[in-house]
Specification:
Largest sheet: 8 strands, mixed
Structural class: alpha+beta
Distance between the termini: 29 Å
Low-confidence stretches: none
CATH class of the largest domain: Alpha Beta
Number of helices: 12
Radius of gyration: 18 Å
CATH architecture of the largest domain: 4-Layer Sandwich
Oligomer: single chain
Order of helices and strands: EHHHHHHHEEEEEEHHEEEEHHHEEE
CATH superfamily of the largest domain: Penicillin V Acylase, Chain A
Strand content: 15-25%
Helix content: 25-40%
CATH topology of the largest domain: Penicillin V Acylase, Chain A
């Protein structure tokens, strides 16, 4: 379905001012999004075992200290989003870090996610400088349950005391994929871990990494975070330094970018990460493997430019997802970032049917 150009929220000022504008602007959407996610957990749809709403709020509340300790400014922004949207901070943690939150829920209940409700999330690539005319790329689709697509928004932020950043996100969320003014870019794939805990959720971690000036510094933020759940993180800076990290709460194997592209989807590759990866339905595992193989094939040999990456995200053989029963997963958008030039292209909705927009660093 053809969608309009991606929505952009411009916000600047203190953490509280940015969060308040975000929450107020999208209050009705955020409220609905929060209720939908709480209902999924309460029914056991994601955790594999039902929970009362009181228990859900208590679990989210127990994660507040980890979020505050991870980064006080980001916690202030998250709190302001909640206030602006008229939801609780606990609900904001659930909305913003849902897939990590359910890793923690599953650890609490001992449940398993029913196969029809598991989600595959994203095909992502790192392209080194030597394969991209001297200036590498971080690019990815953002795949989610098709109900999430309408909540996609681009945040163009100018915090008072931190680097400006362009961030692909959903309403009520601190950020999911982004690049800052120093040319540090961060992307993600969802992983499903068996070692979830009461920690900080991934969207706060992405934003914390975007406070840094180099890929090495961003990597340290990730390695030191008290993670609640499992995600794969991709990092690149303006000098072409890059890392891929299968980050579980208990283990974080690192793959450093060298002379060939790194492609990652939604299954762990490193043996240490595989050891704590939750069991996945066979069809979703095969889909993730197929997307990984297809991404490697599409980047095999030759120079990689923006158009080649657009075509990769548009690939209808494997990568650009359409909702099909029972999973109803679709490519809800995509981003292409070039840290050396600070160029950021974004697409809302399925890339095969929609246009990319080059996003400027101001709203002129």
């Amino acid at each position: 379905m053809k969608r309009p150009a991606i929505r952009i929220l411009d916000a600047k000022g203190s953490s509280e001012e940015i969060g308040q504008l975000h929450g107020t602007q999208y209050a009705e959407e955020i409220q609905k999004y929060a209720e939908d996610r709480i209902q999924l957990v309460a029914a056991g749809s994601w955790s594999g075992a039902p929970m009362t709403k009181t228990d859900i709020h208590d679990l989210a509340g127990s994660m507040i200290p980890a979020h505050r300790e991870f980064n006080e400014e980001l916690f202030a922004e998250l709190t302001a989003i909640a206030h602006g949207a008229q939801i609780s901070v606990e609900e904001a943690i659930i909305v913003g870090g849902f897939t990590d939150f359910v890793d923690a829920v599953r650890a609490e209940t001992g449940g398993r996610i029913p196969s029809e409700l598991q989600e595959d999330d994203c095909t992502a690539v790192l392209v080194p400088n030597n394969r991209a005319g001297g200036s590498g790329f971080l690019a990815q689709t953002w795949d989610m349950h098709d109900t999430a697509t309408d909540h996609v928004v681009l945040l163009r932020l100018q915090p008072t005391n931190k680097p400006a950043a362009i961030i692909f996100s959903t309403t009520g969320c601190l950020g999911q994929i982004g690049m800052n003014e120093h040319g540090v870019a961060v992307g993600i794939n969802n992983l499903t871990g068996d070692d979830g805990k009461r920690g900080v959720t991934w969207t706060s971690v992405v934003r914390g990494m975007l406070h840094e000036e180099t890929a090495d510094a961003a990597l340290q933020v990730l390695l030191q975070a008290d993670l609640a759940g499992a995600h794969n993180y991709l990092i690149m800076d303006k000098n072409g330094n890059g890392f891929n990290v299968e980050a579980m709460p208990s283990i974080r194997p690192i793959q450093e970018l060298s002379d060939e592209p790194i492609v990652h989807t939604n299954h762990a590759v490193a043996p240490s990460a595989k050891a704590v990866q939750a069991a996945r339905p066979e069809d979703l595992l095969m889909n993730s493997i197929r997307r990984l193989d297809r991404g490697i094939e599409l980047l095999d040999k030759g120079d990689v430019d923006t158009q080649r990456l657009i075509e990769l995200t548009q690939d209808q053989e494997a990568i650009c997802r359409r909702p099909e029963q029972p999973h109803l997963i679709e490519s809800s958008g995509a981003a292409i970032m070039r840290p050396a030039t600070k160029e950021f292209w974004a697409c809302w909705g399925q890339p095969s049917e929609n246009d990319y927009k080059l996003i400027g660093w101001d709203n002129d």
